[in-house]
Write a structure and sequence with these properties.
With 70 residues, the chain is an alpha+beta fold. The chain is 17% helix and 46% strand. The strands form 2 sheets. Strands 2-1-5 form a 3-stranded antiparallel sheet, covered by helices on one side. A two-stranded antiparallel sheet has the order 3-4. The relative contact order is 0.35.
Length: 70
């Protein structure tokens, strides 16, 4: 389809490293790319934030770039 773009997602990372809520913070302009980015991040696993020795929930921005190569 020749789609390229950058999506910035806001993701909640739970204490176990699983992804909680995910939402589009800055759209690529393509609903297809936005949904693909959300799906990829939703199924990802992160290193959780810590408060001292304890993992805690946190939110972060996740940029996802879709770029075609030759």
């Amino acid at each position: 389809r020749g789609l390229q773009g950058k999506v910035v997602l806001r993701a909640e990372v739970l204490p176990g490293g699983e992804t909680g809520r995910v939402g589009v913070r800055a759209s690529s302009g393509s609903e297809i790319l936005d949904h693909a980015a959300e799906g990829a991040v939703q199924h990802g696993h992160f290193v959780p934030a810590r408060a001292g020795d304890q993992p805690v929930p946190a939110e972060l921005d996740v940029p996802v770039v879709f770029r075609l190569s030759e």
